[in-house]
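Figure-free illustration: sequence to structure, shown twice.
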Amino acid sequence: MKKELVFPVIVGFLCGLFFAGATLLMFNPNQGKPIQILPAPTEQPIKVYINGNILSPGIYEIKKDSRVDDLILLAGGFVEQPGDSINLASKLYDGQHLLIPYLWETDTNKTIEPFVNQDLININEATEEQLLALPGIGPTKAQAIIAFRNDNGYFSKIEDILMVPGIGEYTYNQIRNLITINQVITKRSE
């Protein structure tokens, strides 16, 4: 072939490819599914029951990882100031029950612990040291409980502790009457 014809042949070939591709696109549209843009996942709120020295006691939906102070504000605040005995910075969790004491019901020299009963250990809040007080729970199992809780969120029932690696029926039967998942700020005096 002559050199003068090479360039027009290449240009003609490329133009032919372009028109063939354009024709295919026009008469054979994409058969795939349309792309859907989904909204970002939102965290489910938790439900917490609050009563006692509160203007509007009841069950409230609140953002996960909220604090006691956030819930008290949502519930309208205190009927009367309860003193400094409540840990307002304590984190809330789903299914929690908070009983806010009146000042006359509390020992003002003592911060109220976040446990339902001093004999029951709240597996949703307990430190490694507190978990070690349970029979059959050594450092490895205590760390496994805390790691499971950190990775999966709070336990919703005490039986959920069976999902922790290393906790079996035997250990569960030893501790089931010594643990709780509910956090109550205080008990009323009787």
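We now fold a second protein in the same way, so the two outputs can be compared directly.
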Amino acid sequence: MDAATTIIIASSSSSYFAPPRLARPSSPRFPSSVRLPSSGTSRAPSVSGISRLDPRLKSPPSTPRSLRHSGCQIHGQTVTSDHHDELVKLGIIPSLKGTKTDQRFPYVIFCAPPSRTSDYPGDVRLAALSWNGEGSFLFTSSSAPYDCNDNGNCDEDSPVVPIGRSPRTDVLLKAEAVVTEFGGSVIRLAGLYQADRGAHSYWLQKGTVEVRPDHILNLIHYEDAASLSVAIMKKKLRSRIFLGCDNHPLSRQEVMDIVEKSGKFSKKFEGFTGTNDPLGKKLNNSKTRAEIGWEPKYPSFSHFLGVAE
């Protein structure tokens, strides 16, 4: 990704980088589409795209930083100009969604959530059309499509929810199909988090939450989601599906026990009161790690909060 042009596309609102599943409780941020030009160009690389500034969906500030360290100039395309000052501070040249350009780029990463558009697969297709077929096109999706809700084990090869069963997973699977049709790759991300963003932060704000405490969830730090995305893009693979998680699934109660143990949060969580909502899944992305040659900076939520045993 040296001497290339990158475009980051996301939406300018409060949910930037996390899987749609955690978008409700809270997830991470990340840009929504990154594109880079041919490696043989002598000019400075540039990036442009759309970015959503919230902990829920798909594009953390870590991504632009990772790309900047790769020598990329970043252009961020957003739905509104609300966060353009923040993007400039991150080294991103902002523009609004719909800005016309005839440029085609060798590297594109799409990280915008489906919640702000009526035609998500169509938006993904538009991003794909800005890819010149070289380098990589990567779509940040969610682990929600994996068909498991009994706290069972799940990996890259596990079956997905059939089309037609759930509108929420339908929109993701249809968008993924567009990506692989163009030869792009997909990374299905677990719940994104950082100190002040993620499910734990949402639950602390609420105090008491009407969901069951034994539901298993899966996490990945924003920085790790960004570094894994960049590592996948550098491989220049075609029509592949990868999984992003820290391989340390936790129950909701375990997450909040770790928060309490860390002593780093002033608010007190009261508890979970639900009993009948669905269970989760235990994600493992060992195959992705082996193929990409990647390991997370934060191997678990407890490591991040400094209470790992």
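Summary for the second example: The mean pLDDT is 81.
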